[in-house]
Amino acid sequence: MALPVNWTKVRYVLEGIIIVELLSALTYFYPLLGPWIFILVMAASLYLAIVRLDWAIYVLLIDLIIDSKGYLLSYSWGGFRLSLRIGLWLIIMAVWFIKEFIAIRHHQKPLTLEWRKWKSSGVVIFLLMLAWGIINGLIRGNNLSNLFFDANGWLFVLIIGPLFSIKKWSSADWLAVLTAGTGWLVAKTSLLLYSFTHLSSTWQSMIYRWVRDTQVGEITKMSAQFYRIFFQSHIYLLILVVIASWFLATKLPHDRWEKWFAKDGGYLWIIGLGLVLMPIIVGSSRTFWLALGVLMFVMLIAIARRYHWSITWRWLMTMILAGLVSLASIFIIVNFPWPRPQLSFRPADIIEERLGDLESEAGASSRWSLLPAMLKSIVQAPLLGYGFGATITYISADPRVLAQNPQGSYTTYAFEWGWLDIIFKFGLILALWYLIWLIRLIGQAWRHGVVGQAWALGLSTLALVHVFSPYLNHPLGIIWLVGIIVWLSSHKHYESLHSC
User: Fold this and answer.
1) What is the pLDDT of residues 335-350, one digit of tens each?
2) Is residue 347 reached through a cis peptide bond, with omega within 30 degrees of 0 on the bond before it?
3) Same domain, 218 and 306
4) How far apart are CA 350 and CA 346, in angstroms?
5) Could you report the per-residue pLDDT of 201-243, keeping only the tens digit for each?
6) Does residue 77 fall inside a structural domain?
7) Domain C-terminal end among 81, 109, 137
8) Within a domain: residue 391?
9) How many domains does the chain have?
10) What is the pTM of this model?
11) Among 215, 195, 211, 212, which residue's Cα sits nearest to residue 203?
């Protein structure tokens, strides 16, 4: 599958990303500049959306890839903090709505055509599900602040309107954005790993506060004498690994694997997969590791059934080599001789710490403590749920919770168990519809060639990760859901999904 990547466009996007990162650091360490820079960025985004709405959407997509929760740039007043992502979303939605209203008013676009797109895609039922979550939350008297922030991530799905309105997307532009964005994720993870294994404690403290307060990711020193650097947006690297691993099988020869490796670009596949896999190892997310292991096992069986043993063992060997490249890249970063490295990289110790005694580890312990409390609440309202903003109180082992409450009692509306969260908020009926809808989207996309298979593999990865870590109720996952719907809707063999 040859991808026509325009490397000039990739360079331009990377330059833009670096500028945003520099502006983020500047506004963080010089807060007086923050409001002015944020306003200028919003003004530029408004102009871009008016002139080329698709380019403004590309900017939003880049933010999703590099900026986990959208706070690389933000504007605060009172107790409210407006993020770059919400600002971009509001601008895009406002410009799109005004343009659509003008076009319909002047009979330039039939309203029935737009309605048919929304209805046939299944989005109308999805929006009704969200409406029920809001209404149910209000009926039950859930805290309005909790209700708003709980529903906020789900409402990102409305971005499908602007996406539907773009008549033709440029594959070169999409590839440039995705290549630059994921490339920057790898580069930034590498730079942070280098910083926390080589720089002084003063520099580490400054960088840590910037990464933490902009909510890009988590940096934690492990007892294995290694720093865990995890971004929520690493999910896109996990998806990329899954997609690339599947299509790798189509590139492998039945014989002379060595020639493929040395002369036919096989080494590029191994290096590329290794570098993309590296942040997933550094992030040390048990959820990502579990999802990757399950997906690789399923993929191994599927490849064995489709291509038989001659391709299967070569695929397995190539994946092992990619894993070794990933480990080697981490070892090189950690042990780079200048300045003198302060920590070491021992994969066995990291695996033991993350997968060993889960009962004593704060994150895993808290997640398992939450599980019986969620199940008990679900049983009390299994069919209709509790609506947005509903809370559960449980005993957490999180050090941040214990610092505020030594007993560990914690009340929240945001839960790690993604599918149980959906059942808890919407009830079993709508949760089952949502799952069936996703399965149908995956099935339809899979039947429509290599691009459709890529979309399907990405949504399958998100659905699996969502079991333990919520992504399908967050813009990071919803954008993929929206993307597959828009792609299917533009396909000439698209089938209606509103009936599922």
Assistant:
1) 998 888 888 788 888 8
2) no
3) yes
4) 7
5) 999 999 999 999 999 999 998 876 789 999 999 999 999 999 9
6) yes
7) 109
8) no
9) 2
10) 0.93
11) 195
